Amino acid sequence: QVQLVESGGGLVQAGGSLRLSCAASGRIFSNYVMGWFRQAPGKEREFVAAITWSGGGVYYAGSVKGRFTISRDNAKNTVYLQMNSLKPEDTAVYYCAADPNTSADVLTTEYEYDYWGQGTQVTVSS
Asked: Which of 45, 71, 47 has its CA nearest to residue 57?
């Protein structure tokens, strides 16, 4: 089992920045692919970004590419999502996800992830 706890959400004005953190416990964090997803009110959960177990591979949704950066610190069992140039349409609950995978693949769909955090709210005002 892996436990994931997100933090860092909040209210920010358009154009501002936030950094989300996801702390993992329970298993060897470095053996897991990590991803961020988000769900806006009335919409399905969507992929945001993912990073391979080593940090050597990253992938972003087109809507956030160039504005968001995913990174990880395996020594701290933590994955981060730096969000810059935030837009009102980025408003959502952001979820961290983990899957045991030491390949070079990044995972971009919900069903590929075994473990999920409880989510953290990000609200961007116009």
From this structure: 71
List pLDDT tens digits, range 5-50. Answer: 999 999 999 999 999 999 999 778 788 999 999 999 999 999 999 9
Can you read off the two tokens belonging to residue 69? 């950066």
**Mean pLDDT on 101-124:** 92
- The 8-class DSSP code of residue 96 comes to E
- 51-67 residue pLDDT tens: 999 888 999 999 999 99
| Size of the chain, expressed as the number of residues it contains | 126
pLDDT of residue 13: 98
Indicate the SS3 state at residue 84. coil
Find out whether 120 and 80 touch, Cβ atoms under 8 Å: no
User: Is 46 exposed, middle or buried, given 0-12, 13-18 or 19+ CB atoms closer than 10 A?
Assistant: middle
| Cα-Cα-Cα-Cα dihedral sign, residues 107, 109, 115, 118 | positive
Residue 20 CA to residue 74 CA, distance in Å, equals 16
- Alpha-carbon dihedral 35, 120, 76, 50, rounded to 10 degrees: 10
